[in-house]
Amino acid sequence: MPVKSTNIVPKNSDVKSHYRVRHMTHEDLPQLMEIRRDLKVHDVKSCIDSWLTVDPQGINVVASKEGEIVGACCFIRNSEDLYFGGLYCIRPKFQGSGLGIQVFNACMEHIGPRNAAINAVPGKMELYRDKSGFPIVETEFMCQKNYTSELVDSNNLSSINLQGVTIESVQECHLPALFSYDFSIVGYDRKLVLALNCLEDNSRTFVAVRNGSCVGFGTIKLTCMGAGRVGPLYADDTAIAEALLKTLIMSMPNFTGFVMNTVSNNVAARRLLKKLGVPLKEELTRMYRKEKLSADTKKIFALYDLNLAPF
């Protein structure tokens, strides 16, 4: 049962004794989503739930002795040697108390000596580079947040000229080919989270198939703000990506607003968003702890999640 937020904030000298950092549980999700809604962030509850299943110690929260959650941060294990950070938030009335540093440091301990990546919001790149242990800055692309509160019309997209490609609702028989295709793009195994992704509530996943092989796939989910969010969306070419995107939008007609986060060096993804009338809202800087990641970004038309996975 969600814990009601209290208006009483302990004095700074008492905050750290009243609140502690601990691993988040699945039962904490409603409170975390309340904080994310207050921040007007288009996170997806089921997506966070899936990644928490993959890495049960990957998300930390700041919680009172009574169970009230006032902040969070994550570094989720994407592979044995790669973690990804995000979800960093502290309720405004607790900012400046030192709790944010505590939860961030707890997440960094979870990484150990391994590589990690983050997306830095504007104005924070120097902080992460010089003081937080992320000295390597991505120069090939920026991560782009694209959003509109208006309705998007799938009729503005085409599904012709697919040259033998069929778009099919994902079934268990598609999973081995989908896993292999995903590996070919990001370079590491994500079987468990992709399988969970296909089962999430308020989501739809479709696969593009040619001669029995996967040549693209995509998912649309309902965010905590009621918008439709596309991601991941990977495809061999623009025509397949456009057909998948059209199908995804048509499959979930009752959303309010539309989100699709992209990499800046995939100009074809930008053209698809222009067809839909979805503007660029913000660019984030990708940063790494030890080394850059390599991915086939020309096939990445929408990122999986800005807070949980690099691509």
Automatic annotation (TrEMBL):
Superkingdom to which the source organism belongs: Eukaryota
Annotated N-acetyltransferase domain residues: 19-158, 165-310
PANTHER family: SLL0310 PROTEIN (PTHR47237:SF1)
Cross-referenced Pfam families: Acetyltransf_1, Acetyltransf_18
Gene3D superfamilies tied to this protein: 3.40.630.30, 3.40.630.90
UniProt-recorded name of the protein: N-acetyltransferase domain-containing protein
MF term (GO), any: acyltransferase activity, transferring groups other than amino-acyl groups
Matching CDD domains: NAT_SF
